[in-house]
C-alpha cells in the first residue's frame, strides 16, 4: 500500500482560482493513478457543471487536469499502465446484481455468503449457478449474523470473500462489523436497497 501526498488546496488555487476546486483536483488525481483518458473526465465535468456557466466548467477541468498531471509526474512508478477505452459491437444486457457478481468473480472472490433478502438475493443465486465453473463457494446462511461471520472467517483464512444483504439484514450484521474491524479482516459488504423499486411503483 502507498500513502500519496497531493497538495489539493494549492493546486485548486493555482489552477482553479479557489480552494473549492479541491474535489476536482482529487478526482483528477485518482484518474491519474489509473492512467485513464482525461478527456472522459473532462466530458463528465462539462456535463455536470454546464448549467453553471463555461467559467465554472473550465475551472473544474483545469483543477482536475492539475491533479491528473501531478500524479503522472510525481508518482509515475505506481501509476497503472494506460487503459484503452473503446467500443465493441458485442453488448451485454444484465441486471445490477449480475454485474456485481461478475465484478466479484473478476476480482477473485472465492466465497460469498448471504441470507436471502430482496433485492440482494439475485447475487447469491447468480454466483451459486457459476460456483462449480469458477471454483467458488456461494453459501446460504441461516440468518444475516451467520452470513457475515462466515464471510469474515473465510477472509481471515485468506480467501477473498463478500456478503450481501438489504435493509434490516444489515442492522443485524452491525456487531460482526466490529469483529472485522478489531481483527483488521478485509470484507466486502454489498448493501442493496429498495429505493429504485419504490420510485418505479
Automatic annotation (TrEMBL):
It holds the Pfam family POR_N. One of its GO terms (molecular function) is oxidoreductase activity, acting on the aldehyde or oxo group of donors. InterPro entries: Pyruvate:ferred/Flavod_OxRd, Pyrv/ketoisovalerate_OxRed_cat, Pyrv_Fd/Flavodoxin_OxRdtase_N, Pyrv_flavodox_OxRed_cen, THDP-binding. Keywords: Oxidoreductase. GO terms for biological process: response to oxidative stress. Residues 3-69 form the Pyruvate/ketoisovalerate oxidoreductase catalytic domain. Signal peptide: none annotated. Residues 103-193 form the Pyruvate flavodoxin/ferredoxin oxidoreductase pyrimidine binding domain. This is Pyruvate flavodoxin/ferredoxin oxidoreductase pyrimidine binding domain-containing protein. It comes from marine sediment metagenome.
Amino acid at each position: 500500500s502507498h500513502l500519496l501526498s497531493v497538495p489539493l488546496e494549492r493546486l485548486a488555487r493555482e489552477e482553479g482560482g479557489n480552494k473549492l476546486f479541491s474535489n476536482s483536483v482529487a478526482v483528477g488525481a485518482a484518474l491519474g493513478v489509473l492512467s485513464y483518458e482525461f478527456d472522459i473526465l473532462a466530458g463528465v465535468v462539462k456535463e455536470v457543471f454546464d448549467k453553471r456557466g463555461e467559467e465554472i466548467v473550465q475551472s473544474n477541468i483545469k483543477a482536475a487536469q492539475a491533479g491528473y498531471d501531478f500524479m503522472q509526474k510525481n508518482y509515475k512508478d505506481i501509476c497503472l499502465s494506460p487503459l484503452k477505452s473503446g467500443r465493441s459491437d458485442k453488448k451485454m444486457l444484465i441486471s445490477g446484481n449480475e454485474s456485481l457478481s461478475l465484478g466479484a468473480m473478476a476480482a477473485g472472490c472465492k466465497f460469498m455468503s448471504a441470507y436471502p433478502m430482496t433485492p440482494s438475493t439475485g447475487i447469491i443465486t447468480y454466483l451459486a449457478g457459476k460456483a462449480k465453473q469458477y471454483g467458488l463457494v456461494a453459501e446460504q446462511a441461516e440468518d444475516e449474523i451467520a452470513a457475515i461471520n462466515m464471510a469474515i472467517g473465510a477472509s481471515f483464512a485468506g480467501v477473498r470473500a463478500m456478503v450481501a444483504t438489504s435493509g434490516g439484514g444489515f442492522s443485524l450484521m452491525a456487531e460482526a462489523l466490529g469483529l472485522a474491524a478489531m481483527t483488521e479482516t478485509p470484507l466486502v459488504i454489498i448493501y442493496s436497497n429498495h429505493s429504485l423499486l419504490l420510485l418505479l411503483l
